[in-house]
Each structure stands twice: as C-alpha cells, then as structure tokens.
Automatic annotation (TrEMBL), chain A:
Residues 19-207 form the ABC transmembrane type-1 domain. Belongs to the binding-protein-dependent transport system permease family. HisMQ subfamily. It comes from Aliiruegeria lutimaris. Signal peptide: none annotated. One of its GO terms (biological process) is amino acid transport. This is Amino acid ABC transporter membrane protein 2, PAAT family. It comes from the Bacteria. The keyword Mitochondrion does not apply. GO terms for molecular function: transmembrane transporter activity. GO terms for cellular component: ATP-binding cassette (ABC) transporter complex.
Automatic annotation (TrEMBL), chain B:
It comes from Aliiruegeria lutimaris. It is a peripheral membrane protein. CDD domains: ABC_HisP_GlnQ (cd03262). This is Amino acid ABC transporter ATP-binding protein, PAAT family. GO terms for molecular function: ABC-type amino acid transporter activity; ATP binding; ATP hydrolysis activity.
Length: 218, 256
C-alpha cells in the first residue's frame, strides 16, 4: 500500500492545535532561556563566589545531562517531593532552563568582549555598576550575540518535540495520536515535518528582522 | 565640612601598580574656573593622575578633594559606591577613544544618565539634549547612531554627554589624540568655548599650542613627579628644569 493522504484532513484540527502548542512552548521557553541566560551570565561573571558555585553546578547539570532526562526529573521527579507541575509548565521550565544555560555561555563571552571603556564611561557619568551593566554593557553584549542565540532558538524549536514524552500534546504528540487511530505513520509524520519546517521559516524570518534592526544601529 | 580652600585639591597622591610607582607624592590645587593642562611623556602618570580625580584609578595613598568634599573617602563598600556615584555626577570626563554608547543614538547618549540619575521627564531630557548638542554644534546629528559620526563629531557628542550632567569640573584625557589632524580643531573650539564659560577643566594633552593658548597653568610630569608647573608663558617659553626643556624641544620644535 502506498501513501494515502486522504485521512489527513479529518485530523487537521488536532494537528493545528499541536502546532499552536508547539509555538506556545517554543516562544515561552525561548523567552525564559533569553532572560535566564542574561541573569545566569551576569551571575557567573559578577556574583560573589558563594553565589556563583550553586549556579555552576546548575549549569553543569543542564549541560552535562540529556534534556529528556531533565524533563523526566522536572515532571516525574518533582512530584515525589510534592511539586506537581502541569506537563506544559514542566516542559516550558525544562526547555527554558536547558537553553538558558547555553545562551548564558554565549552572553558571558559577549559581555567580556564589550570594551572596558564602555563601563568606564558609564561609571564616570555616575551610574552604579548594576546600572552600567543594565543600560550599557548587557544591551551591547546581547546585541552582539543575537545571531548565535537565534541558532539556539531554532534548536529549541526542534527539541520541543521531546516534551511529547511527558504528555504535552504539541505537534509530535498530536501526530502520534492521529497515527494511533489511523495506522498511517508515514503520512502524519510527514505532515508534522512540514509543519515544523513552516514554523522554522517563520522563526527565521522574525530573527532576520531583529538582526536587521540591530544592524541599523551599528 | 572640611578645611579645603581650593576647589580641587590633591594631597600627597601616590599610586603603585605592584612594585611600579606611577605617582610619587603629587599635590595639586586647582581653583574654580581655572584651566590646567597636564603635559609630559607617555608613562609619566598624567592620565593616572587625571583618572584618580574621579577615582577611576584609585590612589594607593593620598586624598582627593572636590569643592570641600573628599572624593576618595574611606567608607564601607556599599556606602562608598553611593558616595562615589554622587561625586562622579559632578565630574565630567572625556576619553581619548570617545567611549560613546554605540547602541544608543546621539540623543540617547546625552540623555541616558540625566534620565536615569536625575529622573527628568522625556520632554526635559529632549530639551536638554537639544541644548547640549546645539552647544557643541551637533544638533543636526541628534538621531544618528555614533557609528555614523566622524571622530570629531563623536568627541563633541561625548563632551555634550558629559555636560548634560551639569558637572562642576571637566576632565579631558587626551581628547584629541585619536583624531585625524583636520578634526582636532573642531574639538578644540568646543573646549575653548567651555573655557570662555569659566568651566573648571583639567586637561591631559599632547597639544602644546592648545595648552599654551587656553590654559591658566601647565604641569609638566615625568616619571610620576610633577617636574615643573606654572603659567604657560613660563613653562613653555622659559622652563627652569632640564627635563622640561628636553621634552619641549621634542614636542614644540620637532613636531611642526
């Protein structure tokens, strides 16, 4: 038997709902990974030793272990100590923190690369170190690091499929549901692949716009 | 509050980097409205001295006083940070490499600190930016990013940024050294204008002609000491010290 896409339209609602959930978890996790990445970078560079150490352990944990395991830990593990998170929230936190650690590495390098004269000029005007970081150093570092962070965000979109295993009915799980009823894996996985591709195109377009805006201020 | 009578007073300033002594017991008084040039070979400590005045390079020993308040007071860390931030609001600084904020427009460069530190409204901030930029002749570039300015325009913007905080004292650290020769004059003109408005200025410079024409006093520094100081007519035309003479021979005779 060959490919038969005639079964697909009946499941389009499920698939599109899956697309929406994929976009929702990608966007929220991306925001968490961005803000978290900045905070982690500033802590890693400027916090006192005693504060830095637990965060180093945290970074090691998230870089050194599989994302899938991290999702299991957050979703199934935390229940044991009385923290019962909805699947979406667990997925959002897991994905967001995982990529926050990667973003933080990029942002740290970029902060170090900002010319020391920038901090001096800001301090000379009377800004505190925190104000200078917030208004002068970090915005420049983030600006420099937007393209590689964009790459991380594309990886985040693809890895969002992993949250299907903790029961978030995003695109991959939606396709699996349809397959379970119709026994048509090839068709529905292809449909899901096309959907990921389209979301990807959308994300790249947004990233390009942001990069172009940044380029104007150089 | 203090026993100073001078506007700026540096008392027995010493500065070490490890074993290297960069400043060796320097004392200096500057009166309100005075313009003082610091000249000397590179490595003589003149920039370090200038940067000690707003504590950008803290002294190892000695005191810096501004308008009756000690700048480098001994205070616990948090209190000191608060104190020094307040002091720096009164001391404008202009750098050799401009150090404009590249992610902000000219307008935003000028208004950022007043908005953040003095809480002025957007409307007042815009008025302030226009006023300060008109003053340095840069009003037509108000919405440009620094990357689109020439070196001279960048430095004039940096001066406007410093002036927007309404400082009592301006420090210039080789403000024209990084500029193409044909752009030096436009920055010098702005500095002359400030001089006419009786801004107190301390200027580290390699430009002897400018120092001679604008400044009330010239300090010649070498190897961490103030070797000679006095009015420009005396220091430039009739220096007492051999080291001053040797330095001036190189920079006055040879250069042009």
């Amino acid at each position: 038997m060959g490919l038969d896409f005639s079964v697909v339209p009946a499941w389009m609602d499920t698939i599109l709902l899956g697309v929406l959930w994929t976009i929702a978890i990608t966007v929220t996790a991306a925001l968490l990974s961005f803000v978290g990445g900045i905070l982690l970078a500033v802590i890693a560079l400027y916090a006192p030793w005693i504060v830095r150490q637990p965060f180093r352990f945290f970074a090691w944990l998230f870089m050194g272990t599989p994302l899938l395991l991290q999702l299991f830990l957050i979703y199934f593990g935390l229940i044991q100590i009385g923290i019962d998170l909805p699947a979406f929230v667990a997925g959002f936190i897991g994905l967001g923190l995982h990529f926050a650690v990667y973003n933080s590495e990029l942002i740290q390098t970029a902060i170090i690369a900002v010319d020391t004269g920038q901090m001096e000029a800001a301090r000379t005007l009377g800004l505190s170190r925190t104000q200078a970081l917030r208004k002068v150093v970090v915005p420049q570092a983030v600006r420099d690091v937007i393209p590689p962070i964009g790459n991380n965000m594309i990886a985040l979109l693809k890895d969002s499929a992993l949250v299907s295993v903790i029961g978030v009915t995003e695109l991959t799980l939606s396709a699996q549901l349809a397959i379970g009823r119709t026994y048509r894996p090839f068709e529905f996985y292809l449909v899901a692949a096309v959907c990921y591709y389209v979301i990807n195109l959308g994300m790249e377009a947004v990233l390009r716009r942001i990069e172009r805006r940044i380029a104007l201020s150089r | 509050m203090s026993d100073t009578q001078h506007f700026v007073e540096i008392r027995h300033a010493r500065k070490n980097y490890g074993y290297i002594e960069v400043l060796k017991d320097i004392s200096l008084n500057v009166e309100r409205g005075q313009i003082v040039a610091i000249i000397g070979p590179s490595g003589s400590g003149k920039s370090t001295l200038l940067r000690a005045i707003n504590d950008l390079d803290p002294l190892t020993e000695g005191e810096v006083w501004l308008d009756g308040v000690q700048v480098n007071k001994k205070l616990p860390h948090r209190q000191y940070e608060k104190h020094i931030n307040q002091m720096r609001e009164h001391v404008g600084m202009v750098f050799q490499h401009f150090n404009l904020f590249p992610h902000l427009t000219v307008r935003e460069n000028v208004t950022m600190a007043p908005k953040l530190l003095k809480g002025i409204s957007n409307e007042d901030a815009n008025k302030l930016a226009e006023e300060q930029l008109a003053h340095v002749g840069l009003l037509d570039r108000i919405d440009y990013y620094p990357s689109r300015l020439s070196g001279g325009q960048k430095q004039r913007c940096a001066i406007a940024r410093a002036l927007a905080m309404k400082p009592k004292l301006m420090l210039f650290d080789e403000a024209t050294s990084a500029l193409d020769p044909e752009l030096v004059e436009e920055v010098n003109l702005v500095m002359k204008k400030l001089a006419e408005e009786h801004m107190t200025m301390i200027i580290v410079t390699h430009e002897m002609d400018f120092a001679a024409s604008v400044c009330d006093r010239v300090l010649f520094m070498d190897q961490g000491y103030v070797v000679e100081e006095g009015p420009p007519e005396v220091v430039f035309k009739n220096p007492k010290e051999e080291r001053t003479r040797a330095f001036l021979r190189k920079h006055l005779g040879g250069a042009k």
